[in-house]
């Protein structure tokens, strides 16, 4: 029966091949979600080995953070953009989970990320969450949580106001757009905890900054940041 099932699966793959969302090539039988070539050839930043990396520097003087990290460099029309597009708009939450696991393996090599208590994703507004069906940042957080042996918290940091898209806004306009957007529903749960705040992409950092401001109001909180990609 197992042999028959394997033959049927192989035949189905010939007719309806599973494609790597990064490069568009057919996945081999032993490949999961992202092809082997892309897993190793995507543009890693290695920011986990650079405490003063460009993402961390974005928050200097704005947020008191322990560490900051983005896994990939983002380039327009590149494979990382393809991954993020499929993650956000093509109903492929599994991409986020796989990328979270890859990121988690990297962060285990950095002492700054080893003692994380909670992983908190940047929340979507209820309307956007209903449209998409899932929070892509939470999917990334799930993969990270498993590798870092931390707990995912999806419902403590909440988005209380819907905002316009950040695309094409200046840094100041993005910051203004994110004012009074987020709130913490249960601050007591986070007292004296080390929180890893996660998102899909960091550009100017205004969204993460707005979230971080709320989290750092809580007594004893330590804050670190991780994203899938960094876009200049």
3D structure, described in words:
This protein is α/β, with parallel strands linked by helices and 232 residues long. It folds into 2 domains: 1-41, no CATH class; 43-230, 3-Layer(aba) Sandwich (Rossmann fold). It is 38% helix and 17% strand. It has 9 helices and 7 strands. The protein has helices at residues 2-15, 36-41, 54-58, 79-89, 93-107, 126-132, 136-148, 171-177, 206-215; strands at residues 65-73, 118-121, 151-152, 157-159, 182-184, 194-202, 222-230. The strands form 2 sheets. It has a 5-stranded parallel sheet with strand order 1-7-6-2-3, sandwiched between helices. Helix 9 links the parallel strand 6 (194-202) and strand 7 (222-230). The radius of gyration is 18 Å and the shape is globular. The chain starts with a helix and ends with a strand. Residues 11-15 have low confidence and may be disordered. InterPro entries: ComF/GntX_DNA_util-trans (IPR051910), DZR_2 (IPR044005), PRTase-like (IPR029057), PRTase_dom (IPR000836). It holds the Pfam family Pribosyltran. Residues 13-44 form the Double zinc ribbon domain.
């Amino acid at each position: 029966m197992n042999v028959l099932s394997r033959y049927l699966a192989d035949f189905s793959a010939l007719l309806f091949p599973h494609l790597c969302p990064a490069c568009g090539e057919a996945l081999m039988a032993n490949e999961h979600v992202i092809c082997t070539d892309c897993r190793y050839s995507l543009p890693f930043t290695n920011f986990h080995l650079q405490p003063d990396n460009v993402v961390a520097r974005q928050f200097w003087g704005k947020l008191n953070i322990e560490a900051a990290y983005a896994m990939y460099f983002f380039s327009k029309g590149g494979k990382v953009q393809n991954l993020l597009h499929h993650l956000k708009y093509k109903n492929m939450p599994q991409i986020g989970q796989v990328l979270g696991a890859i990121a988690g393996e990297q962060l285990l090599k950095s002492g700054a990320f080893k003692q994380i208590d909670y992983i908190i994703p940047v929340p979507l507004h209820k309307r956007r969450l209903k449209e998409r069906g899932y929070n892509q940042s939470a999917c990334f957080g799930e993969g990270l949580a498993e590798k870092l042996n931390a707990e995912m918290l999806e419902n403590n940091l909440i988005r209380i106001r819907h905002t316009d898209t950040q695309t094409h806004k200046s840094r100041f306009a993005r910051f203004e757009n994110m004012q009074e957007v987020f709130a913490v529903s249960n601050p007591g749960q986070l007292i004296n905890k080390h929180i890893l705040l996660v998102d899909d992409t960091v550009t100017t950092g205004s969204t993460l900054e707005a979230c971080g401001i709320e989290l750092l109001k809580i007594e004893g909180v330590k804050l670190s940041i991780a994203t899938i990609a960094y876009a200049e």
